[in-house]
């Protein structure tokens, strides 16, 4: 280890010499200095001095950039991300990834620029999912400029799933729309059908059954039979406020087989309120009998007598009066 540390220091000294000017060297030799810093970074990496390794890679990137070697400058920053993933903060990795991607794009290597953003997003996803979302979205943007729609859809798909996990449903809907757009341009109709189910679930999680139905009308023609059956059963249940049907639809085998984030989302979607039957009147046990007036029996008997005195002749007379 000490031998590698000494070797790294020698490379750093050599790099500094290449940056000095003299009577015979009128301009700094940025390219040679960059190579020396890169070798020093490798030595520090082997010696497990990760901070100095990262610093040397960053210096190498600066030298390459001054010499207009943009690809090598971007690669040096990518190496800095890899060696420092255990010691750098998510903010530092985010910044390094954006700078590296920009340098790759200046060289014309858009795919490499998208790839470094994807790598950095995976590193910081657990600690800082919000920044990982931004990196995945940038990767999709860079990839789309390179006409790599398939790769762009993969990046934006990762963004969509993280947003669902974070319960940022409004942003998740926008991300899913972009994802559908990527697949439509690539002619991947099957993926559009699956994503239609996903966007319906997210809209229901937002509490907007109307938007869920609109999404189905917009993209439902791309769905296969199991997808259509699941969505229609689900939308009908929410339209009729049928809790049991909605619960069965959300637990369907098709939804359970979706990506983990959407399967978990289905389990947390609020069920429709439903129409509850009116509550039955409560009866108190050992309650006292209802109060009955003492005159009630007399009045009832009198009423019965009057009915008995009402003869057929009386009824006939009443009928004649009505005819008149």
TrEMBL record:
<feature type="region of interest" description="Disordered">
    <location>
        <begin position="271"/>
        <end position="324"/>
    </location>
</feature>
<keyword id="KW-0931">ER-Golgi transport</keyword>
<protein>
    <recommendedName>
        <fullName>Gamma-soluble NSF attachment protein</fullName>
    </recommendedName>
</protein>
<dbReference type="GO" id="GO:0005483">
    <property type="term" value="F:soluble NSF attachment protein activity"/>
</dbReference>
<keyword id="KW-0813">Transport</keyword>
<feature type="compositionally biased region" description="Basic and acidic residues">
    <location>
        <begin position="302"/>
        <end position="318"/>
    </location>
</feature>
<keyword id="KW-0653">Protein transport</keyword>
<dbReference type="GO" id="GO:0031201">
    <property type="term" value="C:SNARE complex"/>
</dbReference>
<keyword id="KW-0472">Membrane</keyword>
<dbReference type="GO" id="GO:0019905">
    <property type="term" value="F:syntaxin binding"/>
</dbReference>
<dbReference type="InterPro" id="IPR011990">
    <property type="entry name" value="TPR-like_helical_dom_sf"/>
</dbReference>
<dbReference type="GO" id="GO:0006886">
    <property type="term" value="P:intracellular protein transport"/>
</dbReference>
<dbReference type="GO" id="GO:0016192">
    <property type="term" value="P:vesicle-mediated transport"/>
</dbReference>
<dbReference type="InterPro" id="IPR000744">
    <property type="entry name" value="NSF_attach"/>
</dbReference>
<dbReference type="Pfam" id="PF14938">
    <property type="entry name" value="SNAP"/>
</dbReference>
<comment type="similarity">
    <text>Belongs to the SNAP family.</text>
</comment>
<dbReference type="GO" id="GO:0005774">
    <property type="term" value="C:vacuolar membrane"/>
</dbReference>
